[in-house]
Amino acid sequence: MRKKIKLSKAVLVLSLGAMLPNLSVAALSVSYDQMSYQELPATVLYPFSYQGLVSIRENNFSNSQSYLPKNLPDYWDVVVVGRDVLEQECKPNGQLEVLDYENLPHKDLLTIGAIQQCGVGFSVQGMTLNYALVHKYGVPPTHWVDLFDFNRFPGKRALPKQPKYLLEAALLADGVQPSYLYPLLATKEGQDRAFNKLDLIYDEILWWSDVNNLKLWLEQGLVSMSIAPDGAMLSKDGVDTIGVSRQQVMYEMKYYAMLKSSQQKDLAYAFISYATQPDQQLKLANQQYYGPTIKQAWRLVSPNTAEYITNNPKNLQGGILLDYDFYAEHGATLEKRFNEWLIEKEAPVKRVSMADGKRSIVKKLTDGAENLDISIVSEEIDLIGPRLELLDQNFIGPQLIDSVDNIEHK
User: Fold this and answer.
1) I need a labelling partner for 213 at 20 to 30 A (CA). Which of 14, 24, 188, 384 fits?
2) pLDDT tens digits for 96-108?
3) Which residues contact 286 (CB under 8 A, 6 or more apart)?
């Protein structure tokens, strides 16, 4: 009797794509943090698209969120999320699909932490202290306390505009031991302590939203230090132009998950299976130095890469694993308080509305000064500060508004 062979949905989809080239191209949506995973398209998405004759639609999904937004687009299929999101959304009323691991024949090659009910881990990412090599430090910055030391390390700080990692760094810099970090951050007193620490350096902060811009800022010395993902900051050619310290690196695993609302579940399984296989994980690790989730992966990557990947054991000495349960419970609350803190800090530079606001300011400035040059008044008003509604995440100086030269005077 001929033995029956059971093929997974993933294998079937890819095989059919290769055998039937005249069929219309299927489409799959993959949503991920494009700032952190810049090498994902070249190493995973495009090869999958080519081999399976699949059209990939890429969407940006912020790494800072500890929850899935409601009412996601109905065409979204696969999302890259952290464990905190899995904990919240892998429930009967959640938005993530419970996975059938029969569709992942290589599951035994993955570490235990990578196998979750609603997600498959593919990458270990660390958040590190980065510093500009163009500055002559003597002894370079290595610990989070150095981020707040402007006597030894003057210059601007580039920080991610999110509470995750930022509040941890503030408390660690303030002397909190890692074992007390999350219990303290769960309290109002701990949160107050973290925000008070950030208050000390607020005037020296530049909020970064693009890794490429951040690299330029550090390479050119426009900022002296930053907090950013380790793999995104390390040079691919082995010649580092930015210093990266992994002392007390904060790290977490990232997962591929499937939305319940996906209309392409078979194709989504095919992608998740393909993207988490050893070959694809190693390609990504060799290009961006994030740690694969394969057992003993750091022994499998290129020898030139092994010492740099996030989850090489020597790189995690003294490392702090992101507390998934903490962010599943407190993430949304912290983001709300962080946004309120930003509004409070930016509020003093919010100015009056145009039109009537300009007229009233000019009238006050010109009362009793008949010969005042209106061009001087105009320049002073323009440079009061940025309007809050125009404030950009990459803001590095005052934004000029329209001239008031044409204001009518009575």
Assistant:
1) 384
2) 999 999 999 999 9
3) 301, 302, 305
